[in-house]
Design brief:
Largest sheet of chain C: 9 strands, mixed
Shape of chain C: elongated
CATH class of chain A: Mainly Alpha
Order of helices and strands of chain A: HHEEHHHHHHHHHH
CATH class of the largest domain in chain C: Alpha Beta
Number of domains of chain C: 2
CATH superfamily of chain A: MetI-like
Distance between the termini of chain C: 64 Å
Number of strands of chain C: 12
Chains: A mainly alpha (285), B mainly alpha (279), C alpha/beta (276)
Oligomer: heterotrimer
Largest sheet of chain A: 2 strands, antiparallel
Strand content of chain A: under 5%
CATH architecture of the largest domain in chain C: 3-Layer(aba) Sandwich
CATH topology of the largest domain in chain C: D-Maltodextrin-Binding Protein, domain 2
Order of helices and strands of chain C: HEHEHEHEEHEHEHEEEEHEHH
Number of helices of chain A: 12
Shape of chain A: globular
Radius of gyration of chain C: 22 Å
Strand content of chain C: 15-25%
Number of helices of chain C: 10
CATH topology of chain A: MetI-like fold
CATH superfamily of the largest domain in chain C: Periplasmic binding protein-like II
Helix content of chain C: 25-40%
CATH architecture of chain A: Orthogonal Bundle
Radius of gyration of chain A: 22 Å
Structural class of chain C: alpha/beta
Number of strands of chain A: 2
Strand order of the largest sheet of chain A: 1-2
Number of domains of chain A: 1
Chain lengths: 285, 279, 276
């Protein structure tokens, strides 16, 4: 084996090692916290009081906030995203679709801090006015901005799933005298179902992990919000806001890594489910 | 052939319009608002009065350094791993595991990479808040994108090319290095450029691994502290009292411009190469 | 591939050329967001006359600065609160801990300018932030619920407020933790029902500052530099530099500048209260 081939092999193994290393390292930093923690109050409790004595670290409020904002982003983004993908894959002339795909790809690159800035200056005041709220810095504003941010992921993956449906399906359907509308909804979309579900799941993963936008727009209430129209703080924002504040190996430091581990595990689970959906479909086909 | 659409189909196209409108409007709005604050001085001068006057040169240069450092690490490792996966990896459980790791790494939120980078590079390895720590963290974040782009680009090269070269007596490595890899070049570069545009805009990672609030000097080495565009935008928008709004918009505009230039050139390059390719 | 290599090399050469400057000593300042602007202004002025010394300022909060000091990641921790006993122990394990008061700050209680409430007693203020008073009409204002704005838990101002005003009780669960004082000011400027606490340096016409009374009988005092200087304003606190180890060389040059007349003029210009 030439040495170059050995080098690329090492590079390949690096990816695996790195993923394992990141997980294990974060877990190792979180371990001292879980060792002290005898019950489930970390997950079920509502108090995050890092500067009180003694401090309390409970993350239910952050988990609920992440869940609310993600759900809103996906529920708003999904119909629009999937319908857009259908338009791209089935309705528009090829050269138009190619151009629009590039446009979506580009919008995916708009940095989240830029979205956060727009959310802060434009969306939040607008939301406060329209819904007559006490403050516009709420989960709703963050969810609204996030629903736009997940669209590129959603559209490109859904578009890919739709285009992966063999052309013969559509042709067979047309041969039976169906309209394009019927073919799309009765043949192509059902055939692409697995890929579409995976697209939604991956968009969800993206929304859960989004940090800057929610840090700037969601409002930063540290306890469980009663509704989406209240200020809240998702788990990503908690980590970004506090991690550099905690002295290394302090209780807060370990608690934040515990929160990071929870976030990591959630995104891994979402990814694994998406992969299983795609993989299961492949085996069935 | 002229396309004609039924009413329900128009509804689908309407959804597409609705999906495209907000980001395009956002880009346009930012550039319009930014225009008032952009000047040569703004881009090429050092900041003064904590950033309220003067320019944002250190933030721009800091971001370029970050991109450079990220490229130095992610390009060899990412392309290497992509080549391994596409050309040499045996079809076994281990490779399957590797593929799974790749998918999962791609799904990890950037704040988790930041957390890891902070604990590992900044604290454990003692690199401190430096360009080095931030570049390495960003390199890990962009790694899955580069690996995937490389693998897909190599998969896009027809198998017959490889076979022809092997038939001529080339070794597997020679076939890869002289035939398939050059053919996949544009795909790899496009993917890398797109990945780097992510790195250019990422804030969570550098917020945690330590961009400076104010430093009116340019970095001199990878151990330097630095300012960076996305972090500068974040603090201008939320922390600096008396920051004129047009300067914040201008910072957003410069960041967005940098990212979009990378994205557009990547896309154009790919389209050009696609047209040139005969297979 | 060659083109890319060329590009990377060119960039390397450009950056290396930029990098060919004489070695500089670096002084790292990290910590309080209240003080980050002051620190940056002092650094900027100092670097004009000391071109071979680089003063890097970053924020994040007093806790951030002290954590960085303990971890050996910064030379000076800016803090808007006392170092805590647990932190002091950890810091002293690394060397002698120096505490230097570089300025004073009054903590102004601010609301939207349209808010009819003009003054509060300390007890009312505490009750509001503990969540015991939730409507402005309970303190003589409109019938509207009070939106509580606070700094993040990373902030020394948060800790000072919690210790000093709330007497170590907890903030009401509905309190919004804002990432910076400027974010509080921005929200106050557009939210008619919000209340927030901000350093004097952040006060501007977009917000109205409330008068504070020790109790019902006493006279209300509005936060100002003068009121802090003549000790009539209750919510005042020292702002600290914390340093571990021997203070000498460039670090000493910088500290001398900070407490000098020139340095203290900058402190004053930024709305803080000079030490003498």
């Amino acid at each position: 084996m030439p040495y170059q081939q050995k080098l690329v092999t090492v590079a390949g193994y690096t990816v695996l090692l790195l993923t394992a290393a990141i997980f294990l390292f974060v877990a190792a930093q979180a371990w001292p916290f879980f060792r002290e923690q005898v019950d489930l109050s970390f997950f079920t409790g509502d108090r995050w009081l890092p500067v009180s004595s003694p401090p309390t670290f409970q993350i239910k409020g952050f988990l609920v906030s992440s869940f609310m904002i993600t759900t809103m982003a996906v529920v708003l983004g999904c119909p629009i995203g999937i319908l857009s993908a259908v338009s791209l894959a089935e309705l528009l002339p090829r050269h138009v679709s190619v151009l629009l795909r590039s446009v979506f790809e580009m919008t995916a690159g708009i940095p989240s801090v830029v979205w956060g800035f727009l959310g802060l200056t434009v969306i939040a005041p607008f939301v406060a006015r329209v819904f007559n709220l006490n403050t516009g810095l709420t989960g709703f504003s963050a969810g609204l901005v996030l629903s736009v941010m997940v669209l590129p992921t959603l559209v490109s993956l859904a578009d890919e799933a739709l285009r992966a449906v063999p052309r013969e399906y559509a042709e067979a359907s047309y041969a039976l005298g169906t309209t394009r509308w019927q073919t799309i909804w009765r043949v192509i979309v059902p055939a692409a179902r697995g890929g579409l579900v995976a697209a939604v799941l991956l968009a969800m993963g993206r929304a859960i992990g989004e940090t800057m936008t929610v840090l700037m727009v969601a409002g930063g209430r540290l306890t469980t919000p009663g509704s989406i129209f209240e200020p809240m703080r998702p788990i990503t924002a908690l980590i970004a806001a506090e991690v550099t504040n905690a002295a290394r190996h302090s209780e807060q430091y370990h608690a934040l890594f515990a929160a990071g581990l929870v976030l990591f595990t959630i995104t891994l689970a979402v990814n694994a489910i998406a992969a299983a959906v795609i993989g299961g479909k492949k085996e069935a086909g | 052939m002229r396309q004609s659409y039924t009413l329900p189909e128009m509804f689908l196209l309407g959804a597409l319009g609705l999906a495209l409108l907000p980001p395009l409007a956002a880009v346009l709005y930012i550039f319009v608002r930014a225009a008032a604050g952009i000047s040569l001085e703004f881009i090429f001068a050092m900041p003064a009065q904590r950033g309220i006057t003067g320019g944002i040169l250190p933030a721009i240069v800091g971001t370029l350094w970050l991109l450079f450092g990220t490229t130095l690490v992610v390009l060899p490792v990412g392309v290497g791993a992509g080549v391994y996966l596409a050309e040499f990896a045996p079809r076994n459980r281990f490779t399957h595991l590797l593929e799974m790791a790749l998918i999962n790494l791609a799904g990890v939120p950037s704040v988790v990479f930041g957390l890891f980078g902070y604990a590992f590079f900044v604290l454990t390895l003692g690199f401190g808040s430096s360009l080095l720590s931030a570049s390495l963290t960003l390199a890990i974040m962009t790694l899955p994108l580069v690996v995937t782009a490389t693998r897909e680009a190599l998969h896009g090269v027809p198998g017959s090319f490889r076979e022809a070269s092997l038939a001529l007596g080339a070794t597997r490595w020679q076939a890869v290095s002289t035939v398939t890899l050059p053919c996949a070049r544009s795909g790899i570069l496009t993917g890398t450029l797109l990945a780097l545009s992510r790195a250019a805009g990422d804030t969570a990672c550098i917020l945690i691994t330590g961009a400076a609030f104010f430093l009116p000097r340019l970095p001199t080495s990878f151990m330097s502290r630095f300012m960076a565009l996305p972090y500068h935008l974040y603090i201008s928008a939320t922390q600096l009292p008396g920051m004129p709004p047009e300067r914040i918009w201008a910072t957003a505009g410069v960041l967005l411009f940098l990212v979009l230039v990378m994205q557009v050139s990547a896309t154009l390059w790919r389209e050009r190469e696609r047209r040139l390719k005969k297979w | 591939m060659k083109k890319l290599l060329l590009l990377v090399l060119t960039l390397a050469v450009v950056l290396a050329a930029v990098g060919c400057q004489p070695e500089k000593t670096v002084i790292d300042i990290n910590g309080s967001d209240t003080m980050v602007n002051m620190g940056a202004a002092l650094a900027e002025e100092f670097m004009k006359t000391n071109r071979n010394i680089e003063v890097v300022v970053s924020g994040g909060g007093s806790g951030t600065g002290i954590a960085a000091l303990i971890d050996g990641k910064t030379d000076i921790a800016q803090s808007s609160r006392d170092i805590r006993e647990s932190e002091r122990t950890k810091a002293q394990a690394r060397g002698t801990l120096h505490e230097i008061v570089v300025a004073w700050d009054g903590l102004a209680i601010a609301v939207h300018p349209s808010n009819p409430v003009k003054e509060l007693t300390m007890a009312e203020l505490a009750a509001i932030y503990k969540g015991e008073l939730t409507n402005w009409n309970q303190v003589g204002g409109n019938n509207a619920s009070i939106v509580l704005l606070s700094r993040d838990t990373t902030s020394g101002t948060h800790v000072f407020f919690k210790d000093f005003v709330l007497d170590e009780a907890e903030f009401a669960p509905a309190t919004m933790m804002m990432p910076s004082t400027e974010a509080i000011v921005q929200e106050l400027a557009q939210n008619t029902n919000a209340i927030g606490y901000i350093g004097l340096g952040y006060v501007r016409p977009a917000v109205a500052v409330l008068g504070l009374k020790a109790d019902e009988a006493s006279k209300a005092v509005v936060a100002s530099v003068e009121a802090v200087l003549n000790h009539t304003y209750g919510l005042a606190r020292p702002l600290f530099f914390y340093i571990i180890g021997e203070v000498k060389g460039d670090l000493k040059t910088f500290l001398d500048f900070v407490v000098s007349a020139n340095g203290q003029k900058i402190v004053r210009d930024l709305g803080f209260v000079p030490i003498n």
